[in-house]
């Protein structure tokens, strides 16, 4: 009778999963973007976009290599929320007249994703992308990787466009003017991504509502079981 040795997966092994290594590089690029954010928009934008692009690669690597982990999922979501929030914080300074709007956007983003992550994990789901919902739009968003990537990319590029527009143009725009607004790259980027950015905010609201209902349903089941156990 031969004994088979089962390899033990150590904590260190999980931390060194390829998708998690990609996640660490995302954090590094995000920190570089923060460093250059105030005074060098070109370097900041490159680093920020690289961090966002790698977001699509870590999930693909996790599925391809069979290296999915809750640590990786949390790292991915926390990095997303921190980078977006940091950029919006800069926009609060660049556009003080819209500070309340930006504060609401940050709050919606954080609350929606935290509640969604918590509700899916507490309900026993293996991933925050695998859950039951009556919203076909939200289901499409999480089950179709192309839709997920396009909407998320447009959401980030919208904020990048606002960020770039906050810097004065060193040379006159080459594309002319519309209602006295220079048609710079920043303007075109912001206008073209606005519809999908708006869709992302709507999805955040739907997601938060869905998560709230899921948590309340779980609370109702737990309360019902408690009452039944007392009555017996």
What can be said about this structure in brief?
InterPro entries: CDP-OH_P_trans (IPR000462), CDP-OH_PTrfase_TM_dom (IPR043130), CDP_ALCOHOL_P_TRANSF_CS (IPR048254), CDP_diag_ino_3_P_euk (IPR014387). By secondary structure, the chain is an all-alpha fold.
Describe the protein.
- 75% of the residues lie in helices and 2% in strands.
- It has 232 residues and is an all-alpha fold.
- Strands 1-2 form a two-stranded antiparallel ribbon.
- Helix 2 runs antiparallel to helix 3, helix 3 packs antiparallel against helix 7 and helix 6 crosses helix 7.
- The longest helix is centred in the C-terminal third of the chain and has 47 residues.
- It starts with 10 loop residues before the first helix and ends with a helix.
């Amino acid at each position: 009778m031969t004994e088979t040795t089962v390899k033990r997966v150590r904590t260190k092994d999980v931390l060194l999963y390829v998708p998690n290594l990609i996640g660490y590089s995302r954090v590094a690029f995000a920190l570089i973007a923060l460093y250059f954010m105030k005074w060098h928009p070109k370097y900041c934008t490159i680093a920020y976009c690289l961090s966002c692009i790698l977001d699509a690669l870590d999930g693909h690597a996790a599925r391809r290599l069979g290296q999915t982990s809750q640590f990786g999922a949390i790292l991915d979501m926390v990095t997303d929320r921190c980078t977006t929030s940091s950029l919006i914080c800069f926009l609060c300074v660049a556009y003080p007249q819209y500070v309340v709007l930006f504060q609401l956007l940050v709050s919606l983003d954080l609350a929606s994703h935290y509640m969604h992550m918590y509700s899916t994990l507490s309900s026993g789901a293996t991933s925050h992308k695998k859950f039951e919902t009556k919203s076909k739009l939200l289901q499409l968003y999480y089950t179709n990787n192309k839709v997920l990537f396009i909407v998320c990319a447009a959401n980030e590029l919208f904020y990048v466009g606002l960020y770039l527009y906050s810097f004065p143009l060193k040379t006159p725009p080459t594309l002319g003017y519309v209602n006295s607004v220079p048609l710079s790259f920043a303007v075109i980027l912001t206008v073209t991504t606005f519809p999908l950015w708006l869709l992302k905010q709507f999805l955040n609201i739907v997601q938060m509502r869905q998560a709230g209902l899921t948590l309340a349903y779980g609370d109702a089941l737990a309360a019902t079981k408690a009452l039944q156990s007392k009555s017996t």
